[in-house]
Design a protein that fits this description.
The chain is an alpha/beta fold. Helix content is 41%, strand content 15%. β5, α7 and β6 form a beta-alpha-beta unit. The longest helix is centred in the first third of the chain and has 17 residues, at 10-26.
Length: 226
């Protein structure tokens, strides 16, 4: 299971896909640091540390997991031939639903927003707002992800976090594309310009997304599309 995604067999690809979807569902619930680190572990094939990281954070933070997610994390241990089960797995609260996170989103970082939700900037940004609506971090992420096969669109919203808003990239990819690889590349690009624990949410076209992502996409500015 530590092989690059291209070398995974069908079982491995299913495992990676389920883990990626689990991390998508937990975005906005678990800390950004945990989510970005877990996505990096997944993309780098370092699965041995991922289950403990998720179950400990969920137990300590009081964030419920679905029963199928706890079993998935146990399955990682089995697939890797590890003894026991993920730390704190028995202490995690279980749920059958994905709650809204209470976050609100905007197409830009100003309050109130200067442009409408869902604005299409893929054809260019108004000159008077260029530096505010599309900066170098946005450019680096778009340049990197738009070159990846299977990427459909790149959006960016601003989340209402305190003490200041934080950007969230929303990246749509074709079904079957290794979304975890695109997430890591987006994170790496954003980190180059000082973005701590970047929020790079990569999802497959047609996915039934959690409330967090649906709200973000509705507000987000479209930066690029295929």
């Amino acid at each position: 299971m530590s092989a690059p995604w291209a070398e995974l067999d069908d079982r491995g690809l299913r495992l990676y896909t389920r883990l990626h979807r689990m991390l998508l569902r937990l975005a906005g619930q678990l800390p950004d640091e945990l989510i970005s680190r877990a996505r990096a572990l997944l993309a780098e094939g370092d699965l041995a540390r991922l289950p403990d990281a998720v179950t400990i954070a969920a137990a300590e933070g009081g964030v419920p997991l679905m029963a199928a997610e706890v079993e998935l994390l146990r399955e990682v241990f089995t697939a890797l031939g590890l003894d026991g089960e993920p730390a704190a797995a028995g202490e995690v609260t279980l749920t059958t639903t994905t709650p809204g996170t209470g976050h609100t989103f905007s197409p830009d970082s100003a309050t109130p927003p200067r442009v409408p939700a869902g604005i299409d900037l893929s054809g260019g940004v108004p000159n008077e707002l260029e530096d505010d609506l599309f900066d170098l971090t946005d450019q680096l992420v778009v340049d990197a992800l738009s070159e990846r096969p299977g990427v459909v669109a790149v959006r960016r919203a601003w989340c209402d976090d305190s003490p200041q808003p934080r950007r969230v990239f929303l990246v749509e990819v074709d079904p079957g594309v290794p979304a975890w690889e695109a997430a890591l590349e987006g994170q790496t690009e954003a980190e180059q310009l000082g973005e701590n624990d970047p929020r790079v949410e990569v999802y497959w076209s047609g996915d039934d997304l959690p409330p967090y992502h649906r709200a973000a996409i509705e507000a987000a500015a479209l930066l690029w599309r295929r």
